[in-house]
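Standup notes, protein team

Yesterday: finished cleaning the Arachidicoccus rhizosphaerae set.
Today: Dihydrofolate reductase structure.
Blockers: none.

Input for Dihydrofolate reductase:
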Amino acid sequence: MGNIVLFMHVSLDGYAAGTKGEMDWIHVDAEIFDFVGERVGRTNTALYGRVTFQMMESYWPTAADQPGASHHDRVHSAWYKNVQKVVLSTTLDASAYVNTTVISQDYAEKLRQLKKRTVGEILLFGSPTAAHSLLAEDLIDEYWLFINPVVLGAGIPVFKNVQERQLLKPLGTKVFSSGVVCMRHEVQFG
């Protein structure tokens, strides 16, 4: 059975984006890309909200073809083209995309079914609105939070719609030279 793992950048005060969705405060570099790339490369299912999916879709399918594409761009672009993508959206048409399933209704039940038939993990990339929906249904099994050394003061929170206290088991911490800290936790159900 597959687990849903939330990969998200977060400010020190718990926001996934600024008040207008801005993410210009997120720090990424080769060290972080290599760390994430190794982990992502072992996964064959990606989960997105519509906004994040459209942002990814506008870049990753052709990123490797661009002049001067970085090693990370080439590797992640190849992964993105082949991974099974699942998108939570009431407006997207799946037939317009490759390797993509759109869930437009009954998402909680359909994601539970997806978890049952998935071998390995399902990575939820960013997508705070989708994360809030999954939090409301206790569908997130693990967190990989990349805490950036910045305080936003306001914005879109990472944690919203949590129905009850969640006990977490620490799985590890990685401190990057930039000051970003990746904290990994597993949700302890029951």
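Follow-up from PR in the comments: The radius of gyration is 16 Å.
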